Amino acid sequence: MTSAKYPSIKAGTDSLKLNTGATVPILGLGTWRSPDEQVTKAVEVALKAGIRHLDCAFAYDNEVAVGKGIKNSNIPRDQLFVTTKIWGTFHRRVEEGIDISLQRLGLDYVDLLLIHWPVALRQKGDEKIPLREDGSRDLDDERTLNETWKEMEALVAKGKARAIGVSNVSKPFMEDLLKTAKIVPASNQIEAHPFLPEHDLVLYLQSKGITPAAYSPLGSGAAPVLEDETILKIAKAKGAEPAQVAIAWQAQRGVLVIPKSVTEHRIISNAKLISLTDQEMQEINELHKQPGKHIRTCMPPWGVDFKFDNYPPPGQKV
Ligand code: NDP
């Protein structure tokens, strides 16, 4: 795999064009596991540091606090790019899902609405992850991603989402979706970092005009990307933070990148996009081939192998 296959993104480029024509800042702030009492300030710090892209989700249970940070910043709405996601139990009621998120965020529309997982969960009251009696997730097997996508398409016409996309979608799921989609997804948000580059999937998405977005780009505290000797070596040579190296690598291969932090000095340093040389890009491209350096942190790999590769085996708890 060579970096030459990626679109030629000039180092330092800070935005990309979606297939809708909209401009999206490459670098955003992630908000998963950002507690209410910290995320308002984190959003304010990020926006003050020049970040204009926020990654949110109904499932993160903190959209009200994120919305407060947006409001406190006084930045005009049209200068922000806000993403949120439809949770698994909302596949049969997508509009209700976005209405809740919009109300919580205090917004009239989102710039990008994603389907959080390609598989639907059965609704059981307000349970976020309804379980079957055997302890496995209560998947709504009769609901297809394609059917949920149709409801997403309707929201664009209603103006509630400027662009729509998916998350955790593998190539087989995407191929299946493209067979019936009237609107080609604008983005697919997937786990990606130097220990899980997803080269093939990223290149496939780019070939279809679908902008990939990397979640857990720093390894989510579970893959030791920021302690890797190659990342540390490159960071040291540039007088940069290891996180800045992991972030710049995504940006320069044309992938949106949404590191999460609630720590002021990290948010500020993460917001500064550094430049990597072709040689450095290539070294990071190859890292995952080293023993022990291929790590997926988000399990099960929803959509990556799930339906098409029979994961998980029947009866296995997930
Ligand atoms: P990240 O890879 O962004 O890592 C976050 C962790 O890294 C936190 O512990 C944070 O700590 C720490 N960190 C941040 N900056 C630095 C730094 N400069 N140096 C050292 N450590 C640092 O993990 P996430 O899993 O949170 O992924 C990012 C975002 O992607 C999420 O917040 C969410 O918005 C999205 N996401 C989407 C998913 C999906 O299914 N679509 C799944 C998972 C994530 P601290 O906050 O204490 O500073």
TrEMBL record:
Active-site residues (renumbered): Y60 (proton donor)
Site (Lowers pKa of active site Tyr): K85
MF term (GO), any: oxidoreductase activity, acting on the CH-OH group of donors, NAD or NADP as acceptor
Domain NADP-dependent oxidoreductase stretches: 27-287
Stated family: Belongs to the aldo/keto reductase family.
InterPro entries: AKR, Aldo/ket_reductase_CS, NAD(P)_OxRdtase_dom_sf, NADP_OxRdtase_dom
Protein name: Putative GCY1-galactose-induced protein of aldo/keto reductase family
Positions with a binding annotation for substrate: H116
